[in-house]
């Protein structure tokens, strides 16, 4: 397998100083209050010409280095002082220059005092995420973040956070940034920030150097470690309810993973600042070192970003552990600490060849966290955090919000990643193709993690990985890794050429589709381009456009068709050679006409679910990514979900869209419960008994009974609602179905509760199921429907006993 050579050092993070002044007078600000005073001679706002040239330089660099994504922060000063039109101009220049080349992650960092609906509407339109500076509760925040006349900024910032927490603007909220002052009560600060429901929190050490060391009140030699450790213990004890970048970075680096911040870890720096006058500067935290410390002497008009990379200061920060002082290199936590933030190492006469001025604090904090992680007892089975407890209780009722199902999906993604790592470990030593595929996956995980997560989360990743781990298909290690790497590279617009082994002439691109090649084509070279991608195999080249659609100009290309429905996009997965994970045979590639009929039925079924069964819709929209068409040999309605394929269900297209709606919510119950069972033990797996299930003709183990009962909560609910919305005979049929499944699902819940093999958590879960089913017991049903339900139940039980020779 051939992958492009590892790229030379590049820059993927850019800070654009769109305005150089601020409306606050924070006394701990490194821009205005520390050693560098260059802001005085710069234009207040970045000109349009500088914006245009900056976007051009970033795009030029992205193309040259084949970057899959760049990250840009609009900064200041206070960037909102630039005004909506100037911010729009900056965003549009960046999007325009990068369009077709790489993804843009665009953010703005603000003190929040000017944030209003006008700005939020602009940011929603342009996809700009918003980070807000806030140092905790009012007393803590007022210690430094005030107006020049001494007024508090806290009320304005709280108003901004409230605005970002509105449902319309919540997707814009990137998180809160808090600068530490050890005079503030750490728990008061933490509790105040947690109460704001931010999606992320970052605690920042105040900028300081050996020439201007940080305040150290009291007798402790490590007050900053003490402060952060108090917060860590509160955060950890609460079940780590929100990502905290400092703590997450320490934990990641202790596991050998990459840091999430330049202030920790050994990853090379890949950030540059563009000032309002277009000059390139190094990280602006260097302003705390000495006047002119960040200067490169270069600007966007005259110099490329590759030239900036050659600046000695930039080169020094590309060398990992080699650029650290002797003391740092000998430190036992160097891989986590990384020497701390580069600016914090400065000392006159020695430059940056020193440990961080926070060295003792970082050593103490990292050592404490490492010790706690190593000595933490395993959490007792069934022990849940308050958040997990609430989520499990919600799922036990048979339902699940978008947030709850989203967390199930996140947990399943982690399972896939763990399995993928296990697959990589089983690759034969010396297998260069597998190593190259893994290297590309690692690169994509660094540069385009969200894109790669979407690939790894493909429902049929896990079945393949399990076959590898269980020793059932060792020959497909390289094939599967290369397929994932190729799909990730294509989705990210990465320029690597990936050599992918085919499966009997089929090039599998997970989640994207399949390319049907000649049978003798054992390998295919796949390369992304601006207009599409190319596939070279067996001496032929196919050029496939991104805009070809589901049934485009290239007959060999079978892309996954997607039904785009209001609030839900679901794939009709009829291309993946590994989709045969359900108990029924899969259908062949749908014809254009068949795909249109599926799409029409899905549109009507989704309309029914959102209109009549809205409690299921949010979870389905978040968790159900694919429907795999199945083949029913006798033409009957068949459907299935696989425990190993989270996010997918299989089905033959039923006779009506109503039945398709029933099938979707029924099978998605299995998907949800399978994810729950991955995380929680609900019953004793040693129980070998079998049980009567009123929806099956064969005896079922307890695992099958709990799955079927959980699914039939949705079945019962479907008929409960349909009896009220249908008319005529359809309403009478629905009433009889509701009566039957209410009765038999209730009985099945009773069998589960009395089985004697449920764990305490399982008893609690089954009690939640019972509360839903028993809540329907008082709903009126006609005597005719009750009688018909009783007869149907008796017939099924008698037939089951006769079939299974049980008295």
From TrEMBL:
UniProt-listed PANTHER family: ANAEROBIC SULFATASE-MATURATING ENZYME HOMOLOG ASLB-RELATED, RADICAL SAM DOMAIN PROTEIN
Protein's name according to its UniProt entry: FxsB family radical SAM/SPASM domain protein
Pfam family membership, one: Radical_SAM
SUPFAM superfamilies linked to this entry: Radical SAM enzymes
Keyword S-adenosyl-L-methionine (UniProt): yes
GO molecular function terms noted in the UniProt entry: iron-sulfur cluster binding; metal ion binding; oxidoreductase activity
Record CDD domains: Radical_SAM
Native source organism of the sequence: Streptomyces lunaelactis
Signal peptide: none
InterPro entries with a match to the protein in the record: AKG_HExxH, Aldolase_TIM, rSAM, rSAM_sf, rSAM_SPASM_FxsB, Sulphatase_maturase_rSAM
Radical SAM core domain mapped to chain residues: 8-248
Keyword set, alphabetical order: Iron, Iron-sulfur, Metal-binding, S-adenosyl-L-methionine
């Amino acid at each position: 397998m051939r992958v492009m050579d590892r790229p030379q050092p590049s820059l993927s993070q850019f800070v654009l100083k769109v305005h150089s002044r601020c409306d606050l007078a924070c006394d701990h600000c490194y821009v205005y209050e520390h050693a560098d005073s260059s802001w005085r001679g710069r234009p207040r706002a970045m000109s349009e010409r500088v914006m245009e040239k900056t976007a051009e330089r970033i795009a030029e660099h992205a193309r040259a280095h084949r970057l899959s994504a760049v990250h840009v922060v609009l900064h200041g000063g206070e960037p909102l002082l630039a005004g909506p039109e100037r911010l729009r101009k900056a965003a549009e220049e960046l999007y325009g220059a990068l369009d077709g080349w790489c993804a843009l992650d665009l953010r703005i960092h603000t003190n929040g005092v000017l944030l209003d609906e006008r700005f939020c509407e602009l940011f929603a339109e342009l996809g700009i995420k918003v980070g807000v500076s806030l140092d905790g509760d009012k007393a803590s925040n007022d210690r430094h973040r005030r107006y020049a006349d001494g007024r508090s900024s806290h009320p304005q910032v709280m108003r901004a956070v409230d605005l970002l927490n509105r449902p319309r603007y919540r997707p814009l909220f990137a998180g809160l940034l808090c600068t530490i002052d050890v005079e503030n009560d750490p728990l008061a600060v933490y509790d105040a920030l947690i109460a704001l429901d931010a999606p992320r929190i970052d605690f920042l050490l105040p900028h300081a150097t050996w020439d201007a060391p940080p305040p150290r009140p009291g007798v402790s030699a490590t007050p900053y470690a003490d402060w952060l450790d108090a917060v860590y213990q509160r955060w950890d004890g609460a079940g780590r309810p929100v990502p905290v970048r400092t703590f997450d970075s320490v934990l990641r680096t202790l596991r050998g993973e990459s840091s999430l911040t330049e202030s920790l870890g050994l990853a090379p720096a890949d950030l540059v600042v563009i000032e309002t006058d277009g000059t390139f500067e190094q990280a602006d935290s260097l302003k705390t070192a000495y006047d002119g410390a960040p200067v490169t002497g270069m600007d966007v008009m005259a110099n490329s970003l590759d030239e900036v990379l050659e600046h000695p200061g930039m080169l020094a920060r590309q060398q990992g552990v080699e650029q650290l002082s002797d003391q740092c290199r000998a430190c036992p936590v160097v891989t986590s600490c990384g020497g701390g933030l580069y600016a914090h190492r400065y000392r006159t006469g020695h430059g940056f060849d020193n440990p961080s001025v926070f060295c003792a604090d970082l050593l103490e904090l990292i050592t404490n966290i490492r010790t706690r992680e190593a000595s933490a007892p395993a959490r007792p089975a069934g022990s849940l955090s308050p958040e997990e407890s609430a989520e499990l209780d919600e799922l036990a009722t048979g339902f699940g919000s978008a947030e709850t199902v989203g967390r199930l999906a996140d947990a399943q993604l982690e399972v896939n990643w763990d399995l993928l790592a296990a697959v990589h470990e089983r690759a034969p030593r010396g297998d260069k193709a597998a190593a190259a595929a893994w290297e590309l996956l690692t690169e994509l995980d660094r540069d385009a993690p969200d894109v790669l997560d979407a690939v790894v989360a493909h429902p049929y990743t896990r079945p393949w990985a399990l076959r590898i781990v269980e020793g059932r298909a060792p020959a497909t290690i390289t094939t599967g890794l290369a397929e994932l790497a190729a799909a990730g590279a294509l989705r990210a617009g990465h320029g690597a050429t990936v050599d992918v082994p085919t499966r009997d002439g089929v090039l599998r691109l997970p989640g994207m589709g399949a390319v049907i090649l000649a049978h003798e084509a054992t390998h295919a070279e796949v390369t992304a381009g601006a207009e599409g991608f190319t596939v070279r195999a067996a001496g032929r080249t196919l050029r496939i456009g991104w805009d070809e659609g589901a049934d485009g100009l290239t007959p060999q290309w079978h892309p996954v068709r997607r039904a785009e429905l209001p609030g839900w996009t679901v794939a009709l997965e009829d291309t993946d050679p590994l989709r045969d994970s359900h108990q029924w045979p899969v259908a062949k590639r749908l014809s254009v006409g068949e795909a249109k009929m599926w799409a029409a039925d899905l549109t009507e079924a989704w309309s029914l679910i959102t209109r009549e069964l809205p409690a299921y819709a949010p979870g389905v929209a978040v968790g159900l990514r694919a429907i795999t068409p199945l083949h029913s040999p006798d033409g009957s309605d068949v459907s299935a979900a696989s425990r190993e394929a989270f996010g997918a269900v299989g089905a033959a297209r039923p006779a009506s869209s109503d039945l398709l709606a029933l099938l979707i919510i029924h099978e998605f119950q299995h998907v949800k419960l399978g994810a729950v069972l991955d995380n929680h033990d609900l019953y004793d797996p040693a129980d070998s008994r079998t049980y009567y299930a009123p929806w099956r003709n064969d005896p079922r183990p307890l695992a099958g009974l709990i799955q079927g009962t959980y699914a039939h909560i949705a079945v019962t609910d479907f008929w409960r609602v349909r009896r009220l919305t249908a008319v005529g005979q359809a309403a009478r049929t629905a009433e009889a179905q509701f009566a039957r499944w209410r009765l038999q699902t209730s009985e099945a819940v009773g069998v589960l509760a009395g089985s004697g093999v449920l764990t305490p958590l399982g008893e609690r879960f089954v009690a939640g199921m019972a509360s839903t089913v028993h809540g329907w017991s008082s709903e009126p049903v006609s005597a005719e429907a009750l009688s018909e339900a009783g007869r149907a139940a008796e017939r099924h039980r008698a037939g089951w006993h006769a079939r299974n020779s049980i008295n």
